[in-house]
Design brief:
The complex is a heterodimer. Chain A is α+β, with helices and mostly antiparallel strands. Chain A contains four helices and eleven strands, in the order E-H-E-E-H-E-E-E-H-E-H-E-E-E-E. In chain B, the strands form three sheets. In chain B, strands 5, 6, 7, 8, 9, 10, 11, 14 and 15 form a nine-stranded mixed beta sheet that branches. In chain B, strands 2-3-1-4 form a four-stranded antiparallel beta sheet. In chain B, strands 12-13 form a two-stranded antiparallel sheet. The chains are: A alpha+beta, B alpha/beta. At the A-B interface, strand 3, strand 4, strand 5 and helix 3 of A face helix 7 and strand 7 of B.
């Protein structure tokens, strides 16, 4: 089992920015186009942004009073911007991945074990486009991988 | 650390308070059973967890009255190193610790403050109870404890929580909270039993005035909640000075009413008199839970409404 890693949180974190309608649509379109997860799955959630990260947060009736608070974290780390690409986080895939209809790589327990150990392994599979994929084993969604050039790379924490 | 044969002397002052005192002392020799909660935000079907644990030799039985809670055998099994834990499908948590959130009755859309939240068992329980739709502020005054809370929120895939690092008694005004949970730091007497690794804070840190801290937290919680809103105050200790006397202080200072609650575990009314001091009569609506009757940790829970 993986070692528990705990990332330190910043003592002086700032309130993340609520993204514009266009930016929200860009992020949700990525989830829809890449994994077939409909945008309405995220209805009732705000998307917030810190430098390169998007966070999902249950939308309050009015956000202003909460913005007066000095916060450490807000919501669930949802999607990251990696150079020009958007990348889903494993935790968000574990939470919402069961709505997905495509780009799901189903691994046997032995394959999953190897991937978690070696982080990268040769892998050829049909009906999967190159790019970020959902790693699944049985009914369990494990998180995010990258499928490219006959290889599967693990982004599992 | 208090050894088991000192327990009688230590708990003697509660002899008239704790029902079947001898049974209580005998029960302290039993280790705490292992319980966990399933996180339906992530786990597609409870059976996946039950089958997965069964393959590792763990037998899990549902706990009557506690939806989503299971008792696991063997009780020393390291649930924290299973893939069910890693994937955020389960949260190990003793059943009496779930009672404050039962009293809170969280609903989607409500603004809820969890004032002393880390490491997050109750915060995540509130999130689940509201289907991830309450707006929860999870506060703790210590950064290291808050870091553990943030790790648990991520592990369970909770999106409706923001975390803050204030001293509870100085939490800023401005958010019209519907509900506030004060699961106060306490001496932890209710957790004490054989194999208990912690320490009884009340005895150990003579310089820490826990009741004073608890009063500060409760009064602030009351002032933060909107009129008509709910404050739940809980501890895992038997000591009336940390329980009824703290709430008595609030009832004298502010306009609050105690709301009776139903719980799925045997409990006893709060005390209305302690060491010669007469307390507010409505404190009998508080609930006291004892380990030998609940097979869990001793707890105190009271639900209050702000009247003005």
């Amino acid at each position: 089992m993986a070692k528990k890693r705990r990332k330190k949180i910043h003592k002086d974190a700032k309130w993340p920015r609520v993204v514009s309608f266009e930016e929200r649509d860009e992020v949700l379109s990525f989830w829809e186009e890449r994994f077939g997860i409909p945008k309405n799955v995220f209805e009732g959630y705000l998307i917030l942004s810190t430098s390169k990260n998007y966070w999902l947060f249950a939308a309050p009736e009015e956000i202003k009073p909460f913005q007066m608070l000095k916060v450490q974290t807000v919501g669930l780390l949802f999607t990251r911007r990696v150079s020009h690409w958007l990348k889903p986080t494993s935790t968000a895939l574990q939470r919402f991945g069961h709505h997905a209809t495509k780009n799901i790589v189903v691994l046997s327990p032995a394959e999953l074990d190897r991937l978690r150990r070696e982080r990268k392994m040769p892998f050829i599979v049909e009906h999967i486009e190159e790019g970020y994929v959902i790693l699944k084993c049985g009914e369990k969604i494990w998180g995010c991988g990258l499928y490219a050039k006959g290889s599967l790379i693990s982004f599992l924490p | 650390m208090l050894s088991l044969n000192e327990a009688r002397t230590y708990f003697e002052r509660y002899q008239d308070l704790i029902p079947d005192f001898e049974g209580f002392l005998a029960h302290l020799k039993e280790p705490l059973p292992l319980y966990f909660r399933i996180n339906e935000l992530k786990c597609p079907r409870p059976q996946i967890v039950l089958d997965g644990l069964a393959r590792q030799g763990v037998k899990a039985e549902p706990v009557p009255g506690f939806p989503g809670f299971y008792r696991a055998e063997p009780r020393d099994f390291p649930l924290g190193s299973t893939e069910e834990y890693y994937l955020g499908y389960i949260y190990p948590m003793t059943i009496s610790s779930a009672l404050p959130v039962f009293a809170l009755e969280p609903e989607p859309g409500e603004y809820i403050l969890d004032m002393c939240a880390a490491p997050g068992s109750k915060t995540t329980q509130i999130a689940q109870a509201s289907q991830d739709r309450a707006i929860i502020v999870a506060n703790d005054r210590r950064l290291d404890r808050l870091t553990a809370l943030v790790a648990n929120l991520k592990r369970l895939g909770v999106a409706c929580v923001m975390t803050t690092l204030y001293r509870g008694e100085q939490f800023p005004f401005g958010v019209p909270f519907d509900k506030v949970l004060v699961d106060a730091p306490c001496s932890g007497e209710g957790r004490y039993r054989q194999g208990y690794e912690g320490e009884l804070l009340y005895q150990k840190e003579g310089h820490t005035n826990l009741p004073a801290i608890q009063k500060g937290l409760l009064v602030r919680a009351f002032d933060l909640v909107k009129v008509g809103g709910v404050v739940v105050y809980s501890t895992c200790t038997f000591n009336p000075e940390e329980n009824e006397l703290v709430v008595d202080y609030l009832l004298r200072k502010r306009q609050a009413e105690v709301i009776p609650c139903d719980y799925p575990l045997p409990h006893h009314p709060g005390v209305t008199e302690w060491e010669g001091k007469i307390l507010h009569p409505s404190l009998n609506y508080a609930a006291r839970f004892y380990p030998h009757e609940t097979n869990s940790v001793g707890f105190f829970v009271i639900k209050l409404r702000r009247l003005a």
